Amino acid sequence: MECIMRMMRVLVAATLFALGISSTSATSESYSIGPGDKLELRVLEWQPLENRVVEWESMRAELAVDSDGMVSVPFIGQVEARFLSPMELSTAISERLQQRFAVASSIDASVQVMTYQPVYITGSVGSPGEYPFRPGLTAAQLIAQAARRSSELDLRDILNREGTIDLLNLERKRLAIRRAMLQASIEDRDSLSLPQGLDPAALDSDMVDGENEVLRLRQERRARELAALDNQIELLQSELDALIESAAAQQRLLESAQREYDNVQSLAEGGLAIGARVAESERNLILSGSQVLNISTAILEARQEISLAEAEKVALRDREWMEDMRELQKVESELERVLTTLKTQQRIAVAETGMSLSEQELGGAEEALTVTITRQGRTGTRELSGEQTVLAPGDVVHVDAPAMRATRLLDGTGAPSQ
What we know:
- The protein is α+β, with helices and mostly antiparallel strands.
- It is 54% helix and 15% strand.
- The longest helix is centred in the last third of the chain and has 79 residues, at 275-353.
């Protein structure tokens, strides 16, 4: 029985070879599958009664290895592929299919790598990032793809980059000082405090003096507006005091008119007063009452205007505080953007002026590149070194090169060094 099964497998293998989908190549034996790989799956069944091999068309699929190292196989679901060779994965899928369908005939799966997972490069190169893998790729060849040779650097690019960094630094200082001024305004201080992290000697004194002058003018404007409201309140209070005194005098007149009216009424009832006198005392009483009412109304209006002026003082402070806070938020947002852009420009400048591809360009063996390769395998992570190392899919290459000033890249004529 074992002999028959071996014969079946030999026939299936021969059929796979004839179809051009053999999984027994040197690459398949040694390569470890990893995330990012794209695989081709084909399944064949040996049918002994018909003495032929049949391909399962419904099982033909392209398998993508996900970030967890798994592939989704039709009919059997998730299968772990990470760190397996294509042959080992083929065997695992074959066994799962044999169990899933419980057939007596021989089932053989073939897995081939269609697209390898990429390789990565970081460090002192012009274009770090992800690059496609090809068999036989060395670290030196990958560096040659990713790095921008120093002889290719344009002096104008370098000067433009330095100018951009200088402008960003100037803008960073300006925004930091403006933020300090707004914080001083919010805290009602007479002068701003120098921003932390900035060297006072490196700051433009005119810039600091200018923001202090802006702070002084803002405070003077606020003081004038508050003083105007205080003067208005003082005038209203004087008017109120006068109205209160007038109201007291008018109240006395009203009481006198009331007594006179009461006396005239008593005399009239006794026939001792004529009707004209009664009418006149009544008019005097009504006039005094009307004047008391008018003065009381004026007192209420004066008090209301004083309350409105007091509320305006509070509202003035609140409005200026809110305006300062809104402007501070804008300045901080702009400062964050400038800082992020500045860091990016500085990193680009380092990449442009601090990389090299050969000892000749660096001027000696003592300044050669340091190349470190990190490789993930089924036994763990390994670190390799050397520019001539043959890479495997998924390798991460890190390049360190001595930093060089832009002037080192130029010869005496000002042209890029060759």
